[in-house]
Automatic annotation (TrEMBL), chain A:
It holds the Pfam family POR. GO terms for molecular function: indolepyruvate ferredoxin oxidoreductase activity. The keyword Oxidoreductase applies. It comes from the Bacteria. This is Indolepyruvate ferredoxin oxidoreductase beta subunit. Its EC number is 1.2.7.8. It comes from Rhodocyclus tenuis (Rhodospirillum tenue). Keywords: Oxidoreductase, Pyruvate. Residues 13-193 form the Pyruvate/ketoisovalerate oxidoreductase catalytic domain.
Length: 195, 607
């Protein structure tokens, strides 16, 4: 059976989408699969919307960028950012989204209330499978606000939305993350998987 | 990452000297050479692209292989040495990596470096993937050395910031030690330029002929219909053809990896028997024009379609989607829009707009606020420059009235001041940009007695591109400690009479300093250096919280635009995960509603 999985990781600059995409890519390489990823770097990093495209396949991949309707998995570090990327998700795909919102700095300007509940409602009703993760609670549990990225990867793996086992992702963490943060990230991975 | 592949390709090809100036999407190339330096490679962030190119030129004269890295607009700064060096030539292979940015995603222009190469009469390599970029570096160095010419290497953002597994060769090409041999050929004079011009014009077709046999320029398929493409668009075409499936009629496909000098023999073979060709390019229609010219020269009955005919968008980057639609139109095939999950009932909530903003705790926010508050009642114009602080244009700060290119804030302010002398003209410039192209502008203002206020936003790093060191930081890419070049001393040395340094995070003192500088600018150029480190190079302070009982006005929320401050139930609220502890909000608060919180309540924060 052939393996092809397109993953879109959506978040806000600074939330760590790049590391998440690196870990999936590492796991794919270790499994002998083809992988291409593409990142947002530069101007948009500063609190703007950021997206990582990750394509994993057992055959050659041409483009590093996803097309609309082609993502099998959408990982939202922020529910509004997940909604923004829904046009990339195929019907019947899987969304793994953090429950908590990041208020946009522009709220000061537009004075609009931003409701995470409304965003989660859209994710629920969009025709995809939805797993909501209480990122704040899990990050508090493992003692780091910065581990959200790996928590969500754990949840996505447990939901069967990544094609990699926790052991494969653990190995990817060991190969990618600086030694002093390995334990923290592995705890985050398992916390996300249990959620 | 494509940028890492380029760096490793250069190392494998025996590069000896690497120079550059940071700029998205090129910055990681030089960083990677520095990290993976096998020893013996001189790596430097030069003060600007012109300097970088000239340093590398010298090293190439002496026989070293050199690489220069920059973004596309950086090549504008390096244009002077580039065009002359094309005439003089090099001894050691020289590859100038210029990253183009279709979109543009992080740039001022959508200029095409292939067109620049055409103008400068230099060969250009245009890789389509990280793997190809790695392999092509060796070809580029070899070609440069064989023909004694600098070579341009131009990846685009999707190649630079695309990632793929790349097999790396462990063996490095040994290089003989280099030394400079004196020869009149290194001194440019009109007579020599005339002779070299003839040599270049004779040499380019020879290189073009060699490119016609270069395996990375590929020609496949048969038929009267044809597609020509380059770079990342060739990946999009592969995806689009797969999506359109068996209905796609027989066609030829040409991929051009070396657009200049154009591989004419290969292109002639491509056009033979073809009635219509669609050229799929990003940025300028370089291949399209070459094919049209060739069709004209050869009297070929072929329609060359692309940007000129409206079949391909003239601006912005291509996508698999846009290419699929273009190919479907070209082949006369139906294309169904892909089903997706974005449909929502009318009136459904949309995600908020999220433009890039200055980070929470960014000292630039404090600097802009100090100037804004101090100048509230005086006619002022605020000229910005290129860097994170361009983001000071966003409301509520709204402190960037102009922004053109690197170093232009100081000089544009002078032009405005000459026309409107009753206003105070401020020019904001970052520390790295000051060293890049800011200093000549200051000298010009002093010399021509154009009284402006130069505000140097010194955050001790090149923040926007990922915190590279510069002459003011005192560390180099060779891991050495250098004497820091002091900006205040530089300003005094070029004759600025009023030079004051202050901490923008002390709001009241900073406002007073702004007023002193504005007054001093009535009679001479005045300079104010706001010195406080970027939050990416300084540890966080304590975090702050709002006492909702005391919160009455929300001026922190309404005036600062700090991403850590939100409005919750009509009161300001600080997100402890984002607060960096700059305490500007505390200094602004007229109701003493803001105070520090202890570490236990925020949880442990780790990078």
């Amino acid at each position: 059976m052939s393996l092809k999985r397109n993953i879109m990781i959506a978040g806000v600059g600074g939330q760590g989408t790049v590391l998440a995409s690196k870990l999936v890519a590492r796991a794919a390489m270790d499994a002998g699969l083809a992988v291409r990823t593409s990142e947002t770097i530069g101007m948009a990093q500063r609190g703007g919307s950021v997206v990582s495209h990750v394509r994993v396949s057992d055959s050659a991949i041409a483009s590093p960028v996803l097309t609309p309707g082609s993502a099998d998995t959408l990982i939202g570090f922020e529910p509004g950012e997940a909604v923004r990327c829904l046009r990339y998700l195929r019907p019947g795909g899987c969304i793994v989204s953090n429950a908590q919102t990041v208020a946009p700095a522009s709220a000061a300007l537009t004075r609009t209330e931003y409701s995470g509940e409304a965003m989660l409602g859209r994710l629920r009703d969009c025709g995809a499978r939805l797993v909501v993760v209480d990122g704040d609670a899990l990050c508090a549990e493992i003692g780091s606000l910065k581990a959200l990225n790996v928590v969500l990867l754990g949840a996505a793996a447990a939901a069967g939305a990544l094609d990699f086992t926790l052991e494969q992702l653990e190995a990817a963490i060991r190969a990618t993350v600086r030694p002093k943060f390995v334990d923290l990230n592995i705890r985050a991975l398992h916390a996300g998987a249990r959620a | 990452m494509g940028n890492e592949a380029i760096a490793l390709g250069a190392i494998a090809a025996g590069v000896g000297v690497v120079t550059g100036y940071p700029g998205t999407p090129s910055s990681e190339i030089l960083l990677t050479v520095s990290k993976r330096n096998p020893g013996g490679i001189h790596v430097e962030w030069s003060v600007n692209e012109k300097v970088a190119l000239e340093v590398a030129a010298g090293a190439s004269y002496a026989g070293a292989r050199t690489m220069v890295t920059m973004k596309q607009v950086g090549l504008n700064v390096a244009a002077d040495p580039l065009l002359s060096l094309a005439y003089i030539g090099v001894k050691g292979g020289m590859v100038i990596v210029v990253a183009d940015d279709p979109g543009p995603i992080s740039s001022q222009t959508e200029q095409d470096t292939r067109t620049f190469a055409l103008f400068a009469k230099l060969p250009v390599f245009d890789p389509a993937s990280p793997e190809e970029a790695y392999a092509m570096m060796a070809d580029a160095f070899d070609l440069s050395e064989r023909y004694g010419t600098p070579v341009i290497f131009r990846p685009t953002t999707r190649v630079c910031h695309g990632n793929a597994p790349v097999a790396i060769s462990e063996t490095l090409r040994p290089r003989a030690p280099a030394s400079f041999v004196k020869d009149p050929k290194w001194v440019i004079f009109p007579r020599l330029s005339y002779e070299n011009h003839i040599r270049i014009e004779q040499q380019l077709p020879v290189i073009g002929e060699e490119f016609s046999s270069y395996p990375r320029n590929s020609l496949s398929g048969e038929g009267t219909l044809a597609i020509a493409t380059h770079g990342i668009s060739s990946a999009y075409i592969a995806e689009a053809l797969a999506a359109l499936g068996d209905a796609v009629p027989a066609h030829k496909l040409l991929r051009v990896a070396t657009p200049h000098p154009f591989p004419k023999r290969l292109a002639r073979e491509f056009l033979e028997g073809v009635e219509r060709v669609l050229v799929v390019e990003e940025l300028d229609p370089v291949i399209e024009r070459e094919l049209q010219r060739l069709a004209g020269e050869q009297h070929l009955p072929v329609d060359v379609l692309g940007k000129g005919s409206g079949h391909i968008q003239v601006a912005g980057e291509n996508t698999v989607d846009s290419v699929t639609r273009a190919l479907a139109g070209f082949f006369g095939l139906p294309v169904a829009p892909a089903a997706h999950c974005a449909a929502a009932p009318e009136g459904a909530a949309e995600p908020p707009v999220r433009p890039p903003v200055l980070c929470a705790g960014c000292p630039h926010r404090a600097s802009f606020l100090a100037v804004k508050r101090a100048m509230r009642k005086r006619k002022s114009v605020f000229c910005g420059d290129i860097g994170c602080y361009t983001l000071g244009n966003a409301k509520p700060l709204d402190m960037v009235d102009t922004c053109l290119c690197m170093g232009a804030g100081i000089t544009v302010a002078q032009g405005l001041q000459v026309v409107e002398p009753d206003a105070v003209h401020f020019a904001f410039i970052g520390d790295s940009t000051f060293f890049h192209t800011g200093i000549p502008g200051v000298i010009n203002a002093v010399y021509n007695q154009t009284n402006i206020v130069v505000v140097v936003l010194d955050n001790s790093t090149t923040a926007m591109t990922g915190c590279q060191p510069h002459p003011g930081t005192g560390d180099t890419m060779m891991g050495e400690i250098a004497d820091k070049i002091d900006i205040a001393t530089v300003l005094q040395a070029v004759g600025v009479k009023h030079v004051e340094t202050c901490d923008p995070l002390q709001l009241e003192a900073a406002q007073a300093a702004v007023l002193r500088a504005a007054d001093a600018a009535a009679d001479g150029v005045a300079a104010l250096i706001f010195k406080a480190p970027c939050i990416h190079v300084a540890p966080p302070g304590v975090t702050y919280t709002v006492d909702a009982e005391k919160c009455k006005c929300k001026i922190c929320f309404n005036q600062l635009g700090c991403p850590a401050i939100m409005s919750v139930d009509g009161k300001a609220s600080i997100d402890p995960a984002l607060c960096y502890g700059c305490d500007i909000c505390l200094q602004m608060c007229p109701f003493d509603a803001i105070s520090t919180v202890t570490a236990e309540t925020t949880g442990e924060v780790q990078p």
